[in-house]
Amino acid sequence: MNARSTVLALITLLALHVQSGLAWGNLGHQTIGYFLAPNALSFVQTTLGSQYNFSLGPAATWADMVKSEPAFTWSKNLHFVDAEDDPPSSCSVEEIRDCADQICVLAAIANYTTRVVDPTLDAEQIQEALKFIDHFVGDIGQPLHVEAVAAGGNDIDATCSGSKTNLHAVHTGMLTKNVDAVHGGTSEQYAADLVAEIQTGAFSSLTADWLSCTSTTEPVNNKREDATPSIERDVRALLATRDTAMVTPLECPLGWARESNAFDCSTVFNFEPEEDPELCEGTYFTNAIPVIDLQLAKQGFRLAAWLNVIFDGAPMLS
Ligand SMILES: *[C@@H]1O[C@H](CO)[C@@H](O)[C@H](O)[C@H]1NC(C)=O
Ligand SMILES: *[C@@H]1O[C@H](CO)[C@@H](O)[C@H](O)[C@H]1NC(C)=O
Questions:
Q1: Does the CB atom of residue 14 touch ligand 1 within 6 A?
Q2: Which CATH number describes the domain made up of 4-312?
Q3: 218 SS3 class
Q4: How far is the CA of 12 from the centre of ligand 1 (A)?
Q5: What pLDDT does residue 31 have?
Q6: How far does the signal peptide extend, from start to end residue (predicted)?
Q7: How far apart are CA 317 and CA 305, in angstroms?
Q8: Closest ligand to Cα 102
């Protein structure tokens, strides 16, 4: 079917509002989530309502806002998976090693995917499930959310444009600086620019691969090896069995985590803070920006495909 033109739905974004300490910050999350098919779009609009301007952009920041509230402290550890690897020399994500207790973003995406269509849950629980999926599919694309070292970089001192901060927060600083410099300073323009890259630009040749999950996923103990992994297969199998007993019954999120984590070795931890703590300028900055753009575009596209399979039965994006 004529996918992109017919299913494209531009998710409205809130004004730029970056808070420190949120990795890519609100901006990053609001840039995620674009290409919804009709039933997914309708579900999103109805479920989020006017409180979130009927769109995934404003709703994506909810999970970050509530995680410090007493009622939601339990959700804090669902935002990441602590990969016990050794960047920059060795990067890896392993389900059993890194998420044996199922308290991590891999298990959370599976959990909320089953909950978002669970007819026994009430409207508030369904909305929460959607907001968690919205947020966690973004978080898993962030290299520092897939890394145990120094609490995902929070404990590593660094400088961004002269301000002392930490490595985790530097990524928000880099994103903000780049959006100000080349995307008109607004999340709307940045999002529109990434969408253009996906539709007709440098990313357009990559999207089939983004949806396939084959490039990075290795067969894992309990996975079927006879079929090709894909977002479609992942979501369909999960919703058919609702089996969340294993660490994660999903192959794609594990592949996404491994992709993000690989950037910890190639890019994120590739610096000498003692020699030059300034990361929002020079080579570090120049190398990081294409990775941030790629990861945001990719996860936004994957989020739409994920919801499209749930509500429209197929990714509707090829
Ligand atoms: C809400 O969404 C509409 C379009 O869907 C947009 O024009 C408007 O600016 C948005 N409002 C806010 C507060 O983001
Ligand atoms: C699944 O979601 C429910 C509701 O938010 C939560 O109480 C539970 O801890 C979650 N389970 C996992 C494994 O994430």
A1: yes
A2: 1.10.575.10
A3: coil
A4: 6
A5: 45
A6: 1-23
A7: 7
A8: 2
186 lines ligand 2 (CB under 6 A): no
Higher pLDDT residue, 27 or 82?
A: 82
pTM: 0.87
Pocket test for ligand 2, best of 111, 120, 132, 133 (most atoms within 8 A of CB): 111
| Residue 4: closest CA among 235, 301, 228, 265 | 301
Among residues 79, 143, 67, the alpha carbon closest in space to that of 105 is found at: 79
Q: What is the mean pLDDT of residues 106-111?
A: 94
Task: With a cut of 60, say whether residue 17 has pLDDT above it.
Answer: no
Q: Domain extents for the chain?
A: 4-312
Query: Which residue is listed with tokens 């509230």?
Result: 69
Answer yes or no: is pLDDT of 276 > 50.
Answer: yes
CA distance 235 to 306: 7
Please answer whether residues 231 and 306 qualify as being in contact, where contact means their C-beta atoms are separated by less than 8 angstroms: yes
Determine if ligand 2 sits within 6 Å of the CB of residue 108: yes
- Of 6-15, 74-83, 211-220, 268-277, the poorest mean pLDDT is in 6-15
Whether 53 is in the pocket of ligand 1, judged by its Cβ within 6 Å, is: yes
Lowest mean pLDDT, pick from 99-103, 131-135, 213-217: 213-217
